[in-house]
Amino acid sequence: MLTAIIVEDYLDALTLLKRDIEANHQEIKVIDTAQSVVEAAKALRKTEPDILFLDIMLGDGTGFDVLEIFPDLRSKIIFVTASDEFAIKAFKFAAIDYVLKPYSQDDLEQAIERAKQQMQPNKDRINILKETLRAPEKKPDKISLHTLDKIIIVNLDDIIRCESDSNNTMFYLQDGRKIFVTKTLKYFSDMLKPYGFLRIHQSHLVNIQCISAFIKTDGGYLMLKNGENVPVSVRKKTEVIEILDRMHR
How far apart are CA 113 and CA 111, in angstroms? Predict the structure, then answer.
């Protein structure tokens, strides 16, 4: 039997989540609930649960305030947040699992299964989440990359390019490292497009700042500043040329 504490400031949402857990997840016992940072602190001082359902926005602060009060908390955390494109972006950059309100039973079940298996988010990943939520219009400085056995935090500007490997993605960094990540190239293309990354081919995503030249021969390819050559698909050529022209005006 796993224990859980729910921290949610909206009483109806708290009651619904508690009821759904009790009805559909008999392996989890909800031992306490809280509607504020103060109540959450009192509950967590009494007992550290196996799983903490933690709302981001609370009446007297945020879920991050709860985590700062308990920096050594060992509970698996399931963040709960209202549907919001900026919130989703923040969680993706931090590689932290979440469940969106309103959620489906499948969403909740998947979140609980991931929580049972997940590595605890460390302070660096929590900081990425906080910073991206705090300034959603700003380019994030860092991204968390989920490999098969760990999560690596890298600076966005250190990424030269990404290459598709079936349903996975290989990241190539300025220091020569290669990081194999268990998510699709499309996932990262959608995430990174607003921040100077260009999908130039079905298999390739590049950091525009790392492009040296566009070579029109041999079907068309990009020469990168690190000496690598990356092919450009026929349908992407016009877009690539236009972007490079704007950069050099």
Answer: 6
Q: pLDDT tens digits for 150-206? A: 889 999 999 999 999 889 999 999 999 999 998 899 999 999 998 999 999 999 999
CATH class of residue range 142-247: mainly beta
Fold of 2-134: Rossmann fold (3.40.50)
Domain 2-134 shares a fold with domain 142-247: no
Whether the predicted model's global pTM rises above the 0.90 cut: no
If pLDDT is split at 50, 70 and 90, which confidence band does 35 have? very high
Extents of the domains making up the chain: 2-134, 142-247
Q: Report the pLDDT value the prediction gives residue 249, as an integer from 0 to 100.
A: 64
